[in-house]
Amino acid sequence: MSGIYDGLSQLGGPAAPLPESPEAAVLERVANPQADVAYFVRFTAPEFTSLCPITGQPDFAHLVIDYVPGPWLVESKSLKLYLGAFRNHGAFHEDCTISIARRLVDLMAPAWLRIGGYWYPRGGIPIDVFWQTGTPPEGVWIPDQGVPSYRGRG
């Protein structure tokens, strides 16, 4: 591999173990080869897990990460490993969701980013967490995240 992929430690390499924690995870970025075009990217993680920081019990969410790239794209294998690092990480739903968004913004400097954390019930109450960096760029098609309210989640 050469060019824009030089220096990536996880892309195309052997099977990588999950990082010990989200803080220890290496998120990688690549130059956006279409940086002159405003377009939309979506990552969906329908089986995201973390741990309740109080009980240690698992929490489950359907995450939808949408962004309009700036100069950088997130490398998808590193994103997968980063999200997987939350599996043994204790944090509240709000903290997990916003921490993921902020780390991606710091990494990529996107033109716009939003995250929807659709969490399954804990104590009988689903907690959904939403955040975005601001107004989406004009002229970019931003589809609905398409996740039904809890009653409709299968």
From TrEMBL:
The keyword NADP applies. Pfam families: QueF. The active site is at C52, D59. It is an enzyme of class 1 (oxidoreductase). Belongs to the GTP cyclohydrolase I family. QueF type 1 subfamily. Keywords: Cytoplasm, NADP, Oxidoreductase, Queuosine biosynthesis. This is NADPH-dependent 7-cyano-7-deazaguanine reductase. SUPFAM superfamilies: Tetrahydrobiopterin biosynthesis enzymes-like. It comes from Meridianimarinicoccus roseus.
